[in-house]
Amino acid sequence: MERIFSLSPGNHSLLLIDYQYLQLLTIRSHNTSSVINHVTTLSKAGKIFGIPTLVTTAFTEQKDVIREITELFPEQTPLDRNTMNAMEDVHVTEWIKNNGGKKLVMAGLWTEVCLQLSALNALAAGYEVYIITDASGGASLEDHQKAIECMAEAGAILLTTWSYINELQDTGGQKDTADALAKLFVEYGGTSGHGFRWDGQLRNYLLSRKVYADFV
Fold this sequence. Notes:
By secondary structure, the chain is of the alpha/beta class. The protein folds into two domains: 13-170, Isochorismatase-like (Rossmann fold, 3-Layer(aba) Sandwich); 174-215, no CATH class. The chain has ten helices and six strands; from the N terminus they run βααβαβαβαβαβαααα. The chain has a six-stranded parallel β-sheet with strand order 3-2-1-4-5-6, with helices on both faces. The relative contact order is 0.16.
């Protein structure tokens, strides 16, 4: 079935599953810095659009949530559990019931354990599940890829961080969110973000010299 703009700022919640230091340090599917960059971008975009966001942990003793997330959600104490599957925890499911409706966007560590189990359980419970693949990571590239394939075959929809953000801007964004996203892209968009910054600098320079119209 064709999917056209299923997500908008007011119709889903975001689950950040187990972004703890121990899990992060054992990722081998991605560069660790890349995962941090993407989950930070994802979290900041959630703030821009006002997406209800839940941070979870598993067996949290001596495994704190990474600083990049705790600094963005200082008002939130991560929901801890003693199971690998977040959807088995009544506090998580109650939060979703009160905040998220039937659409869940998920990212987490590790892809093949807590994220996959949570996503499959949510799908079985009738939720529409979206996985942010580049903000998640596994113990190996094969583990990550096979878990992604498994979730997709079960019905999960796969997105990257920026494809998710762009969809939200298209379905419910305003000028203020566009301006905020432009700043986010410059800061976290990697080489493309630097290119965007350079393009803006060039435009400003040409406009200041009153030659922009001739240049383009």
